[in-house]
Amino acid sequence: MNYKADTVCIHGQGSREQVESTGAISFPIYQTAAYVHPGVGHSTGYDYNRVQNPTRKELERIVTDLEHGVDTIAFATGMAAVNAFMELLVPGNHVVATDDLYGGVIRQFRKVNEKNGIQFTYTDTSDLQAVEAAIQENTKLIYIETPTNPMMKVTDLQAVSEIAKKHHCLVAVDNTFLTPYFQNPLDLGADVVIHSATKYLEGHNDTLGGFLVTNSPEIADKIREMVKTTGACLAPFDSWLILRGIKTLSVRMEKHQENALAIAKWLTGHPKVTEVFYIGLEEHPGHVTARKQCGGYGGMLTFHVDTQETAHRVLERVKLIQFAESLGGTESLMTYPFTQTHADVPDETRRANGIDEMTLRMSVGIENVQDLIADLEQALGT
Ligand SMILES: Cc1ncc(COP(=O)(O)O)c(C=O)c1O
């Protein structure tokens, strides 16, 4: 089959596994911990839920097809996916990572992986010379977020993948912000794609999940072994919620993007807004690369206001937009990276990346855009 992404969101590329005979349109939730063995030495293909579950397997099939991979492993959270993946490295390995990553990933690298002997160099991966310069003899992985969280820097994935191949290291891309509907890193040379499924894939701000997708059967086998061993698998009901969420991914992403572009343009003209970072704006430094490698620009934007007082006032005054620490759902959320998502990032690092007391991040939802602009207008004041 060669279905387009909006069809794949609903059906995948092939047909689903026949695990039941009622013909239910909605894939059933297999809420079970274990499975009966038909006989000694025989299995139905399902033995114990930590290893596999039919609902989770159906979700993994859809995500694999969306990301053009060979396999997907679903986790309880995005951080569990990052954690399992980093376990593939061994002490003494070196990683080149985007400097402006989600703060929780930086915390994982600093507090868990560094303790276990993995070394890191953080650099601006949108600068190809900086990537090349950061690579060492022992570099095994280039870890990228594009666009970055929260400063929306764009990395040229094809160019970085070529550098990585030259130096025999893997490329992993966190594709949470754009989703496979707008960006397919494996097609551009990456080896692994990581998602916080909590965000756009599930899309309704009501559960957590994570994915690791790869085009390497060897990496997939190692990760399956890891999740079987360490146990951060996605539960059946959460698998079903994400399966259901993905069915509407295409229409949600189009609307997120339409609203985000209108809001970014409106913010650009506001006297209290000093800078707007949205990759769909032509003046954004990453726009040309984004246009080349992405099918769209997504619903995430960041902006700077004139003072800390204005930033606090906006967070306290927004009514329709909610002050909360997540993204990617139908509801518009505003986040204060300085005290929320990036609170644990060393101060000089976050300031060097442009995150300060005046930085606001907005996950633009799918409400009516005029209502959202009216809310921003009253919150910003004059
Ligand atoms: C870009 C990105 N990657 C990974 C994560 C971690 O995902 P989770 O919160 O599902 O563990 C987040 C969470 O905010 C994120 O924004």
Provide a descriptive summary of the structure in words.
This protein has 382 residues and is α/β, with parallel strands linked by helices. It folds into two domains: 5-247, 3-Layer(aba) Sandwich (Aspartate Aminotransferase, domain 2), CATH 3.40.640.10; 249-380, Alpha-Beta Complex (Aspartate Aminotransferase, domain 1), CATH 3.90.1150. Helix content is 37%, strand content 15%. The chain contains 14 helices and twelve strands. The chain has a seven-stranded mixed β-sheet with strand order 1-7-6-5-4-2-3, with helices on both faces. Strands 8-9-12-11-10 form a five-stranded mixed β-sheet. Helix 3 (78-86) runs parallel beside helix 4. The longest helix has 20 residues, at 249-268. 49% of the residues are buried. Bound molecules: pyridoxal-5'-phosphate (PLP).
Strand content: 15-25%
Named CATH architecture of the largest domain: 3-Layer(aba) Sandwich
What's the total number of strands? 12
Number of DSSP helices? Answer: 14
Question: If you average the pLDDT, what whole number results?
Answer: 96
